[in-house]
């Protein structure tokens, strides 16, 4: 039987998934963003991802984009689930809307796959009731929650090779889903209940957030105790069962900074989860306090932010810690300039390296873009030569030879009380 798949949401997860399925099935990609639909139907890609253009070229005959849902055998929801910032609660409006778009087309024997990350219980409490509103009961159609765990920057490779969890409504759904995914997934497919799969996804990212939080706390203690925390972490990680992650200026991205809140919104047991979030969200404040000590004495400091993307070598700045750092500096009367070779659109102007550093008092490296390693410090026309590397990626010897005073987050020189 020829299977047709309708993918709703053509973002960083939905589009690569649609194109991977298009290797074996007819796929229609649906997005409410008309520009994305047009771009794809013109044979272009709305964003870059390693290997995506080659894959798109290969499957063009099996794929088309549309603004409306079409009849299909499988409907896959890969729309965003942002956080309602003020309430710290998952915003399921896009998931609800996708389910509403599918419901009138749903027929017996179809399958609905929810890939979007949701709070535990959202499938049974929100999604399935919407899908079943026209009389079709779960069981008459298959339902699975199959969360994605591919990391931006290596999406296609990880979508193919990572093991995946399939949270199935019933055994028939598990079999149907594993059959479809095995068309491109080389990794193992483990089935479980829907709610367990929802929780496993949140555990993965929450575990990472807590792991980053303890690394950040160690970094602040390194400055306090006069220890270079980077040396200490390297040594501690020599232990066969220790893996301390990298400290940084805070946690960004649309996942790690968001998903733990999907647990705190409903559970009354989330103490470490909430504490880790506050430690990571407070890192920009700590970074700013160090910057303040470095530019001490300048009445109207000018600082240069190297990188506003949420992590190295990507153009995505969602939930970037850079934004909080910029606001803190602005609220103290600093002039803030930004240099980021990857990000094109941002709420603040992004200037050239020369413009961003001219007459500046301090460069603050926030994002670990590889390109920053190639900057020649002797070419920069700074007013005061200060550098604060919050990612420990620069050769500070080179910068010190060019007359810079260098500080690395957690390197043990306590610049502030
Ligand atoms: N970060 C640190 N120190 C570290 C690692 C990361 O400060 O040692 C920071 C990064 O700079 C960034 C943030 O944390 O600001 C998140 O970066 P990330 O690379 O850890 O996470 P994402 O959001 O790019 O991808 C994560 C991945 N989840 C896990 O690794 C458990 C990915 O597998 C998920 O698919 C993705 O979230 C998602 O979409 O859920």
Mean pLDDT, all residues: 96
Q: Describe the biggest sheet? A: 8 strands, mixed
Strand arrangement within the widest β-sheet reads 3-2-1-4-7-8-9-10
The helix/strand class is alpha/beta
Secondary structure: number of strands: 15
Cα-to-Cα separation, first versus last residue: 69 Å
Summarize the topology.
Blueprint: E1 4-8, H1 14-21, E2 26-30, H2 34-41, H3 52-59, E3 63-66, E4 74-77, E5 83-84, E6 89-90, H4 93-102, E7 111-114, H5 122-131, E8 142-145, H6 155-161, E9 164-168, H7 171-181, E10 189-192, H8 194-225, H9 229-236, H10 259-264, H11 271-281, H12 283-294, E11 302-306, H13 321-330, E12 335-339, H14 353-357, E13 362-365, E14 386-389, H15 396-401, E15 405-408
Bound molecules: ligand SAJ.
Residues 148-152, 204-205, 208, 212, 245-246, 248, 251-253, 255-256, 310-311 line the site of ligand SAJ.
Give an overview of the whole structure.
The protein has about 425 residues and is of the alpha/beta class. The chain folds into two domains: about 5-185, NAD(P)-binding Rossmann-like Domain (Rossmann fold), CATH 3.40.50.720; about 200-415, Rossmann fold (3-Layer(aba) Sandwich), CATH 3.40.50.720. The chain is about 35% helix and about 15% strand. The protein is built from 15 helices and 15 strands. The strands form three sheets. It has an eight-stranded mixed sheet, with helices on both faces. Helix 15 (about 395-400) links the parallel strand 14 and strand 15. Helix 4 (about 95-100) runs parallel beside helix 5. The mean pLDDT is about 95. Ligand SAJ binds near residues 205, 256 and 311.
């Amino acid at each position: 039987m020829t299977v047709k798949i309708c993918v709703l949401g053509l973002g960083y997860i939905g589009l690569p998934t649609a194109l991977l399925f298009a290797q074996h099935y007819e796929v229609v990609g649906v997005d409410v963003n008309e520009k994305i639909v047009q771009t794809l139907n013109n044979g272009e890609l709305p964003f870059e991802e390693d290997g995506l253009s080659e894959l798109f070229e290969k499957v063009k005959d099996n794929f088309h984009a549309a603004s409306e849902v079409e009849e299909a055998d499988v409907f896959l929801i890969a729309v965003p689930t942002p956080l309602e910032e003020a309430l710290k609660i998952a915003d399921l409006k896009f998931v609800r809307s996708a389910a509403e778009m599918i419901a009138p087309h749903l027929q017996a024997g179809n399958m609905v796959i929810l890939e979007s990350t949701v709070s535990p219980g959202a499938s049974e409490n929100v999604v399935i009731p919407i899908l079943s509103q026209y009389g079709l009961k779960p069981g008459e159609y298959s339902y699975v929650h199959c969360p994605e765990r591919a990391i931006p920057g290596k999406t296609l490779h990880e979508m193919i090779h990572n093991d995946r969890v399939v949270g199935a409504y019933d055994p028939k759904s598990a079999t149907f889903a594993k059959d479809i995914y095995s068309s491109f997934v080389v990794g193992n497919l483990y089935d479980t209940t829907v709610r367990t799969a929802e929780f496993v996804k949140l555990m993965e990212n929450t575990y990472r957030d807590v792991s980053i939080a303890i690394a950040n706390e160690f970094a602040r203690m390194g400055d306090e105790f006069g220890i270079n925390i980077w040396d200490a972490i390297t040594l501690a990680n020599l232990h066969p069962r220790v893996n301390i992650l990298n400290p940084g200026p805070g946690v960004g991205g649309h996942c790690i900074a968001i998903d733990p809140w999907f647990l705190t919104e409903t559970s009354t047991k989330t103490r470490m989860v909430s504490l880790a979030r506050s430690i990571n969200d407070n890192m920009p404040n700590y970074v700013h306090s160090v910057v303040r000590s470095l530019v001490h004495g300048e009445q109207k400091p000018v600082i240069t932010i190297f990188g506003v993307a949420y992590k190295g070598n990507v153009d995505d700045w969602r939930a970037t810690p850079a934004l909080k750092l910029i606001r803190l500096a602005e609220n103290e009367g600093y002039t803030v300039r930004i240099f980021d070779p990857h990000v094109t659109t941002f709420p603040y102007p992004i200037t050239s390296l020369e413009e961003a550093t001219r007459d500046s008092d301090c460069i603050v490296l926030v994002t670990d873009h590889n390109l920053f390693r190639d900057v020649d410090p002797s070419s920069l026309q700074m007013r005061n030569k200060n550098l604060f590397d919050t990612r420990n990626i620069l050769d500070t010897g080179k910068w010190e030879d060019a007359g810079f005073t260098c500080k690395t987050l957690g390197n043990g020189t306590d610049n502030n009380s």
